[in-house]
Amino acid sequence: MNEKNYSVLVCDDSAMIRKTLGGILGEWGIKNIFEAGNGNEAVDMYREHHPDLVFMDIVMPEKTGLEALVEIRSEDPSARVIMASSTGTKKNLMTAIDAGAFDFIQKPFEKDVIHTLLRKILKGELD
Amino acid sequence: MFSRHFGQFLLQEGIVTPQTLSRALARLSDARPLVGILALAKGFMTPAQVREVNRIQKREDKRFGQIAIEKGYLTAEKLEELLSAQKNEHVLLGQILVEDRVLSHEGLLRALELYREKSGLSPEGYEAMTGGDTDRAVASVLAGQPGGKNSLVRIWGELFVRNVIRFVDPAAALDPLAEKGNGGLVTFLQPMKGDRELTVFISAEEPVLADLARRFSDLASGVFDEMAREAVGEFLNVSNGLFTVNCSDKGIELDLLPQEEVPGNDPRLRRKPDGLLPLLLPEGILWAGILC
């Protein structure tokens, strides 16, 4: 499936989550996986690599995922950012939608949910 | 579940040996609670009455409940209540120990009474603990604590225990007999702000947290290393996240802040928590607290 070399940025302060998501993305043949541990790193890495997709946690030190989302989308309105967080409150959902998040997934991740999402976003474009 | 906790109690009291307990626990999943043992545990029948009905059962092809009603030991309503309770794991361990002749009927009754007395639980709390009613059991353990009447503390407590059962160990049990010291405990805490300011923490010895991490994440090996720390932190994060969602549905907005691993003597842990729950896991006690 990897005719176009897809790249994904995974931003989460938990190395465990980054590894878990990285593993799922790897199953899709995605090799260009960038990792960021907080919102600041995420913004920097987005600027540098312009990934096709971003998975973004919300609660992180230094800069939250919502702040990073706003910054990334203000620089690149076409950025596709999926918020991936344990705290799917109405307020966070609304803020994320208002800021242009592509989708919101609730932790703990279910592999099937990630697969469905990836199928929707990536496979659709490759077929 | 109550069986593990009650087994621990029997062990601590010297009523059973580690070997007999281990054998009995191994048989738990295949066993089904008997009406006679349930009637005994609920105080509906005496040991002598249960033995008499058991004797009659050997010569008459009748069910325990039918004989007990005929003898006037049970009413139809009481029998109905016992049959409903059969669905729970209620005092199943005690039943196995009676079957294995580790305990007599009288011994089981004394052990249950001793447990009730030492746990300090109200009759309702005891009923909830033994019947596997998690929410009522949590309320009972929180009763008498500073935040026992605080609905937010109750919501947190009920949700936290359900999360442990769901994500970590289906057999996790509240242990109202556990005693907390801070020595040797590793603590993860996570503050929240918004409509309220509060902090939730979990504390335990390293082996307990290592085991929690392994059960929560395939990536953790069972050793308390960096990955285990990540997994414990993520479990707390997930649990607290679901708490914020629950609060949000009730009109209370809370934002999670990054969590920290702190020593047991961290100043924030000096004051008595508004809610503190001891959960018995395979490797020991996991303490969960909330400071409002």
Describe the secondary structure blueprint for this structure.
The complex is a heterodimer of chains A (127) and B (292).
Chain A: E1 7-11, H1 15-27, E2 32-36, H2 39-49, E3 53-56, H3 65-75, E4 81-85, H4 90-98, E5 103-106, H5 111-126
Parallel strand pairs in A: 1-2, 1-3, 3-4, 4-5
Helix pairs in contact in A: 2-3
Chain B: H1 2-12, H2 18-27, H3 35-41, H4 47-59, H5 64-70, H6 76-85, H7 92-99, H8 105-119, H9 123-131, H10 134-142, H11 151-167, E1 173-174, E2 186-194, E3 198-204, H12 206-216, H13 226-249, E4 254-256, E5 260-263, E6 275-281, E7 284-291
Give an overview in words.
The complex is a heterodimer of chains A (127) and B (292). Chain A has a five-stranded parallel beta sheet with strand order 2-1-3-4-5, sandwiched between helices. Chain A contains five helices and five strands. Chain A is an alpha/beta fold and 127 residues long. In chain A, helix 2 (39-49) runs parallel beside helix 3 (65-75). In chain A, helix 4 (90-98) links the parallel strand 4 (81-85) and strand 5. Chain A has helices at residues 15-27, 39-49, 65-75, 90-98, 111-126; strands at 7-11, 32-36, 53-56, 81-85, 103-106. Chain A has one domain (7-126): Rossmann fold (3-Layer(aba) Sandwich). The two termini of chain B are 28 Å apart. Chain B is of the alpha+beta class. Chain B has two domains: 2-131, no CATH class; 145-291, CheC-like (Chemotaxis protein chec, 3-Layer(aba) Sandwich). The model of chain B has no long low-confidence stretch (mean pLDDT 89). The longest helix of chain B has 24 residues, at 226-249. Chain B is built from 13 helices and seven strands. Chain B has helices at 2-12, 18-27, 35-41, 47-59, 64-70, 76-85, 92-99, 105-119, 123-131, 134-142, 151-167, 206-216, 226-249, and strands at 173-174, 186-194, 198-204, 254-256, 260-263, 275-281, 284-291. In chain B, strands 1, 2, 3, 4, 5, 6 and 7 form a seven-stranded antiparallel beta sheet that branches. The interface between A and B is medium-sized, with 21 and 26 residues.
